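Attaching the record inline, Q. Sequence:
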Amino acid sequence: MAKLDNRDPGLQPERTLLSWQRTFFSLLMLALVTVRSGLSRENMLLTGAGAGFVLLSFTLTLIALLRRRAMAYPVDLVSLSARRVKRLISGTICLYALTLVLYNLTYRM
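Structure, as predicted:
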């Protein structure tokens, strides 16, 4: 596997890490809107799902910050932990979308 110190990475790793942080921030904002919607409709299921996604968003943001700190040292560009985080992100987004779709199908009829 390629190491960061074996090539000239330029600014690409920095841009990638910043894009992940923007993604996590967007997930956090969407989760907060979900919590607000649940509270305004007095729906505990939607509020609880939103609160869970807020916690997941904070966890993913923490992982991004730790990854950014770790990138200061020579590490594998594609590591097992990076693949696990990508799977966690994908699962979070899918679960969030599924929750919103099921909520709208259930309460909009």
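The CA atoms of residues 38 and 46 lie 5 Å apart. The helical segments are 12-40, 44-70, 80-107.

More tomorrow.
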